[in-house]
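Action item from last week, closing it out:
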Amino acid sequence: MTLRLYDETFGKVLMEKSYPNTYYEDDGDIQECITQLVPPYGNGFYHEICFTNVHISFGNIVLTNRLQLYFESDFDTVEMHFALKGKSMATSGNFQKTVAFDSYQHNIIYAHHMQGKMEFDGPDMNILEINLAPEFFKKFLPDQSGLFEKFRNAIEKQNSSLIQPDHNRISLEMYQILNDIIHCDRKGTFKRIYLEAKVSELLLLQLEQLFNDSSSPSSLQKKDVKKIYAVRDYIINNLSTHCSLNDLAHQVGTNEFTLKKGFKELFGTTVFGFWNDIKMEQAKRMLLDSDLNISEISDIIGYKNPRHFSAAFKRKYHVLPSKIANK
C-alpha cells in the first residue's frame, strides 16, 4: 500500500509512503507519525494514526500560495472526509467530475487505485480524513436502502464514487467527535479502543444524516454561514470570555437576528447553549485527565465562583464535579 505525492512539475517526489499491512490485518498495534510541512509549500503539520482497518489523518496548515500536487495510490479505501477549513479540489480519471470541498463540508468517498491532481486553497487548511478498509466499512452499511446499496455496489465493482453527489454540512455533534479525535492523548491499546469508538460514532452520524436528509434548502446565504462558523470558532477558542449576543454578531459583521436564527439552523442549539455545552465538555475532560482542582477548572472556563460552576456542571451531567475529579 503506497501513496506518492509529486510537485506541480510531476517530477519531484515530495512524499512516498508505504502504509503497513495492519490496515487490513489485525495485529493489535497502533502506529503514529507526524509530518511537518515547511516552506515554500507552507507551515504546519500532518498527523497520521493507523491501526487495523482504520487510518486517521488530520492537519493544520498555513499555505503560502495555492498548492497543487499530483498523487498516485495503489490501494482501495473508503474515506470519511471532513473539510474543517479551506478549499480543496481533486481531479482524477476515476471520477466523472472534479471533487471539490469547501469549509464545513463532509462526505464519504470510495477510491480505487487513484491517480490525479489535488489543489489546496487556504490560506488556512484544516482537514480530517478517516480511511477505512472497504470490507470493514461495508459491515456498517444498512441494508434495504437505495442510497447505500448503490454505494456498496460501487465498492464491489471497484468504481470510485461519492456516497452522494452533494456534500453535507458538518454537524455540531460531528464537530465534537472530531475534536475528541484530534485531542486524544491516551496511549497504546487505550488510545486504539477510544479512537475505534469515536470513528464508529462519527460514521453513524454521517450515515444517519445521509439517510434522514430531507434536502430542504437552507435559508442562509453562504456569507452568513461563514460568519456563524466564525462565531462558533471564537467560542471554542475563548471559553472564559464574556460576550453578549450583540457583541458576537458585530464581531463577525452580522446582526443578532441572523446569528440567532442561523446558529439554531446550523447547529440545532442556541449560541449560549452551545457555549455552555463546550465549557462543560472541557471541564469534564480536565476533571478526568488532569490534576487541576475544581477552583482552577472553574476559573479556566470563565466561572468566578466555583459553586456556580459546580451547579452548572450538575445540571448538565447530573453529578457534582467533585464526584468525578481525578484522584
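Closing note: Residues 188-212 form the longest helix (25 residues).
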